[in-house]
Amino acid sequence: MTDSAVRCDNLVHVYGTPGQEVTALRGVDLTVDGGETVALLGPSGAGKSTLLWLLAGLLRPTAGTVEVYGRKPGALSAQAAAGLRRSEVGVVLQTPGRNLLPYETALGNIMFAQRPTRRRWAARHRRAAQLLDMVGLGPVAHRPAGKLAGGEQQRLAVAVAVANKPRLLLADEPTSQLDPGSAADVIGLIQTANRESGITALVVTHDPAVGAAFGRTVTIRDGRVGAEGRAGEEFVVVGRDGTVQLPPDTLDLLPPGSLARAVRTANGVELRPVSPEAE
Ligand SMILES: Nc1ncnc2c1ncn2[C@@H]1O[C@H](COP(=O)(O)OP(=O)(O)OP(=O)(O)O)[C@@H](O)[C@H]1O
Ligand SMILES: [Mg+2]
């Protein structure tokens, strides 16, 4: 058991069948404390969605551990994992439409999500209307979700995911189809949920506004945590075997494959390029 909201320990995920494997995560170590808001960054194919699916209990890890509030979502039955997603872990998948009931109205989707809470109809209705207002969807409350534009579906999916005040929100690119104003509404909704009910949020994004709004960024590159940002400053992360991913903007000095000397200084280590011919 741990006090962390999220804990990944040497987490590995391999897709595919023997002979055709794709290694999506190759040893992710990550701890997120309860109440933290984290933006998960990284280039396409880095493994961001895979990490989210593992945390949501939609995939099982190939090796290593993944824990959410001390429980292992990958070890639960499909039914128990679905129960966890209904009550404690709000999930927004990367394809907006997959999060919603297409024939149900926008309002109806949020009402439906609140079924497990046993709150009275009027209370659920009030919350649904309030959430729709917060993301600017009041005017389309009675339109079927399947008839909403992609950006509207994204906003609705986040409203659905936070409806039951989950302890953890996992959202995959929730602002990718939004103009800056609507993106700010979604970020605001997550921050309000964080402030009012202490929600922990892990949000995959390419949007610098999300990274700037959250206290912490985690950058995944090639299946590993390569960098972390705190309060606007970027740091490299020393991996369990001593590996360090250099920031992309330093690769002109140390291109991949080059040799460097690791020099101990008074309080750190400096990497100095060497050219083999000159040695
Ligand atoms: N179902 C799958 N079967 C096989 N390989 C997969 C599957 N899903 C993802 N992959 C591969 O795993 C790697 C990580 O994919 P993932 O979707 O997690 O990346 P991502 O960081 O979310 O990328 P993007 O920013 O494009 O959404 C990629 O090489 C991808 O091609
Ligand atoms: Mg993805």
How many helix segments?
Answer: 7
What characterizes the major β-sheet?
Answer: 7 strands, mixed
Residue share in β-strands: 25-35%
What small-molecule ligands were found? adenosine-5'-triphosphate, magnesium ion
In short:
By secondary structure, this protein is of the alpha/beta class. It contains 7 helices and 12 strands. It has helices at residues 48-55, 78-87, 106-113, 121-134, 150-162, 180-197, 208-213, and strands spanning 6-15, 22-32, 37-41, 63-68, 89-92, 168-172, 200-204, 216-221, 224-230, 233-236, 259-265, 268-274.
How is this structure best described in words?
- With 279 residues, the protein is α/β, with parallel strands linked by helices.
- The protein folds into 2 domains: 6-245, 3-Layer(aba) Sandwich (Rossmann fold), CATH 3.40.50.300; 249-279, no CATH class.
- It contains 7 helices and 12 strands.
- The chain has a 7-stranded mixed β-sheet with strand order 5-6-7-3-8-9-10, with helices on both faces.
- Bound molecules: adenosine-5'-triphosphate and magnesium ion.
- Magnesium ion is lined by residues 48-49, 94, 172.
- Adenosine-5'-triphosphate binds at residues 15-16, 22, 24, 42, 44-50, 94.
Task: Explain the layout of strands and helices.
Layout (H helix, E strand, L loop, with lengths): L5 E10 L6 E11 L4 E5 L6 H8 L7 E6 L9 H10 L1 E4 L13 H8 L7 H14 L15 H13 L5 E5 L7 H18 L2 E5 L3 H6 L2 E6 L2 E7 L2 E4 L22 E7 L2 E7 L5
Parallel strand pairs: 3-7, 3-8, 5-6, 6-7
Antiparallel strand pairs: 1-2, 1-4, 8-9, 9-10, 11-12
Bound molecules: adenosine-5'-triphosphate (ATP) and magnesium ion.
